[in-house]
From TrEMBL:
The keyword Transmembrane applies. It is found in: Membrane. InterPro entries: Tetraspanin/Peripherin (IPR018499), Tetraspanin_animals (IPR000301), Tetraspanin_EC2_sf (IPR008952). Keywords: Disulfide bond, Membrane, Transmembrane, Transmembrane helix. GO terms for cellular component: membrane. This is Tetraspanin. It comes from Parnassius mnemosyne. It is a multi-pass membrane protein. Signal peptide: none annotated. Disulfide bonds join 147-186, 148-170. Pfam families: Tetraspanin (PF00335). The chain crosses the membrane at residues 12-33, 53-74, 81-105, 208-234.
Length: 247
């Protein structure tokens, strides 16, 4: 293969496939983060994880196809480059399908999540030992997101007026006092968080889902460029082969 032009295309395609591998890892990472968000905030229910699981599979497929594209470009094989371009087209179609499905299902997922949050909050207020998992779940959310209750700390006393907010609603106190005194001071002085957790949870999940969709859209543009380069290189190799035959 002679001439800087085709060599430049060849090496550029190899570089592009290196970027594909990186973006494949990014898609897997963002999908895992979104999946973790859904699992962490869904009240121990497994719902709405299907699109993220498909995206993780697509990310793995992208890495494999990128490696295949590097091999095809390096070997200067038109057949391998055509197969590579076809695989990229399939990936684009899959990504668009998952993106549309994710956007369409998001309101339903968030609505289901709101229901699970409210149901688990009621169980969180229970003193039964079998409901301790819900108390741990809400303690984790309230600590991590710096919020209290579903819509606010008043949710704790809605059905039981004497019930006070959980200690996890209180900001961190680095004093040397024991936890009982810290909790008593927090409740008596109303230092606990005043913002509800529902909006914060939905906002975090929405942001994670949006990151997945944006990554998918940006990657589609990069894949289109890869298809163009692969077809260009394959056609150049075939044209040069014909030129040598007629020479």
């Amino acid at each position: 293969m002679e001439g800087c032009g085709m060599n430049c295309i060849k090496y550029l395609l190899v570089v592009f496939n290196g970027l594909f591998m990186i973006f494949g890892i990014v898609i897997i990472t963002t999908a895992c983060v979104d999946l973790g968000m859904l699992k962490g905030f869904a009240g121990m229910e497994t719902t709405g994880h299907e699109t993220d699981a498909v995206l993780i599979a697509i990310g793995v497929f992208i890495i494999v196809v990128a490696a295949f594209g590097c091999f095809g470009a390096w070997k200067e094989s038109p057949k391998l480059l055509y197969i590579y371009a076809g695989c990229l087209i399939v990936i684009i179609l899959l990504e668009l399908s998952v993106g549309i499905a994710s956007a369409a299902l998001r309101p339903q997922i968030e609505g289901t999540m709101k229901t699970h949050l409210r149901t688990s909050f009621i169980k969180n207020k229970s003193t039964r030992e079998e409901d301790s998992v819900y108390r741990e779940f809400w303690d984790r959310i309230q600590n991590n997101l710096e919020c209290c209750g579903v819509t606010g700390p008043e949710n704790y006393g809605a059905s039981e007026p004497r019930l006070k907010p959980s200690f996890s609603c209180c900001p961190p106190d680095n004093s040397d006092q024991v936890d009982e005194i810290k909790r008593s001071d927090c409740l008596s002085m109303e230092k606990y968080y005043k913002v509800g957790c529902e909006d914060k949870v939905l906002s975090a999940v929405h942001s994670a889902g949006l990151s997945v969709i944006v990554c998918g859209i940006l990657f589609c543009f990069l894949e289109v460029a890869g298809i163009v380069l692969a077809l260009w290189l394959a056609q150049s190799i075939k044209s040069e082969g014909k030129s040598r035959e007629t020479a």
